[in-house]
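Look over what follows to help learners.
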Amino acid sequence: MAKRGDPNVLRLVVILLRALTRMTQAEFGRASGIDQGDISRYEQGDLAPPEASLRRMAKAAKVPWPLVALLIRFLEAFLVAVARRESQIPTLDLKMLEPALLAVTPYLLENTGTERKRLPQEERREAEETWTSLERHDIPRRRRLIEMTPRSSKSAALAMRICEASAQAADHSAGEALELAELAFSIAERVEGKESGGVQGYCRERLDSARRAAERLTAGA
């Protein structure tokens, strides 16, 4: 995101962040280290806050920065849809929001300190749903989305599911199989707990197999 974005979008972000704190502009300004006059101008849309100020306001509101970045992208898409409305009825392509919804889901599901341990079948189902959402994007986009989601970025079940996708891709594209195997291993490396060794070993085997296949293809070209 640029240092200063669209003031019409960012004014809504600032208003929401302050509303979450239930503070006055002056109180919110003190909490975030920003002049009250600037807070007022941000909320009026007269001035777009730089990213550094947005980060301070997000910290004051106790909102993780990745969620603020997603909120900005959502509002940008929403305002574009409203601007293109037909017959005064705004239309919004929900596919534009899928990456944001995917990234925000772990925050909505997490219950800090009290989340129960999920059963293996629940983890596999969540991994399947996540992969279905990711599958339509290219590899770099998938990687970025996974890195944005705390749960998915270290999910053993998701790493295993992507390994399966890599094995399936090997039948028609050694290059795709290798990219998927690399993606799976990057997740496996972040897996914590007792299952980490087994998942990393499995993903390492898939990665080595994909690399050998890619090397044979290159040698035979």
In short: The chain has eleven helices and no strands. Residues 108-116 have pLDDT under 50 and may be disordered.
